[in-house]
Amino acid sequence: MSSQSPKHIATKLVHAGRRSSEYHGVVNPPVLHASTILFDSLAELEKAGASAPGKVTYGRHGTPTRFLLEEAVAELEGGYGTLCVSSGVSAITNAILAFVKPGDHILITDSTYFPTRNLCNTFLKKFGVETEYYDPAIGGDIAGLIRDNTTLVWCESPGSLTFEMQDIPAIAKAAHARNVKVMLDNTWASPILCRPFELGADVSVQAGTKYIVGHSDVMLGTITTATEEDLLTIKKQVLISGDAVGPDDCYLAQRGLRTLAVRLKQHHESGLKVANWLQARPEVKRVLHPGLPDDPGHAIWKRDFSGACGLFSFVMQPVEKTQLANMVDHMELFGMGFSWGGFESLILPSDPTKIRTATKWDDDGQLVRLHIGLEDPDDLIADLEAGFERLKTA
């Protein structure tokens, strides 16, 4: 968009990554299926390079269907450029692998998404990369953990399952003083609730599967960088990995992107309504939602974010497994399943004790993660209330 274009994020969502004039006035970018791309001459073939931005050379390297989605995500996140890959885990893996080598030391927040931890504890460990997990509340004190061989600091704010907020500007200041890259998993905020590069991140990763797609039917990951140099570094890694995202998935992600602002507004409002209701329930010890005024991370959330999505957790009073099962097995509106970000509400009992090493999760209550979808929140509250009643009678 030109410098004269509107700056409001809802307007950008509608217009970013669209070039109707290049496609006979068609509103949505078309789906271009391709593996082989033909060249008119030997000279044109020899000039073709997979690293050339926007250049169609081979299907795995992308077509305009993907390039336009990448353009839109980069504009929305405020980065230099974006790469789309086949899943959120692929985005995490390729972003990290692009900047590490044997003998390196990396710092990962203890509240990270489990597949990130799994990558570090298995694949990276096997190839001589040392991972150290840190307290998500560490802030600028992370300077004390940075070594001469530290390559990157991985952040996730709010954290997976337990929703701790991180002071990204303080972490970035300490990391950049030692020439260490800062990467942020920005999935919870989507491209529009947090401006990762204004906070100091060098790389922002998202599971586009969640809110960008918005309909629980596509696997997609995005990697956005602050600089051209970092984008090219990651692009080389993605090409080596052989990762490719299909044009149909990119098309569906483009379509989902257009309604992201209105969907997130509803997720935000409904999520907070349910969270506030849960705070008053006798079965609930505490609600983990940074948008609540009494949440430990509320001040950072208010400073760095423009809203909340529909994902949060709550900790119940101690219950027997049979009671928990009687509650969650018979929900009418809340489905039980992995992922989130779609139009439907989800409920997922979880246990953070299994995935913590730098910090200790010692709450004896059952943690339950909710995704509040686009149903009427009063109906969702009624569904939860009925669940609590079943719990008590189990």
Automatic annotation (TrEMBL):
Alphabetical keyword list: Lyase, Pyridoxal phosphate
Enzyme Commission code: 4.4.1.8
Keyword DNA damage annotated: no
Pathway membership: Amino-acid biosynthesis; L-methionine biosynthesis via de novo pathway; L-homocysteine from L-cystathionine: step 1/1
GO MF term (any one): lyase activity
Entries under InterPro entries matching the protein: Cys/Met-Metab_PyrdxlP-dep_enz, Cys_b_lyase_bac, Cys_met_metab_PP, PyrdxlP-dep_Trfase, PyrdxlP-dep_Trfase_major, PyrdxlP-dep_Trfase_small
Keyword Lyase: yes
Catalytic activity: an S-substituted L-cysteine + H2O = a thiol + pyruvate + NH4(+); L,L-cystathionine + H2O = L-homocysteine + pyruvate + NH4(+)
Name assigned to this protein: Cystathionine beta-lyase
Taxonomic lineage of the native organism: Bacteria, Pseudomonadati, Pseudomonadota, Alphaproteobacteria, Rhodospirillales
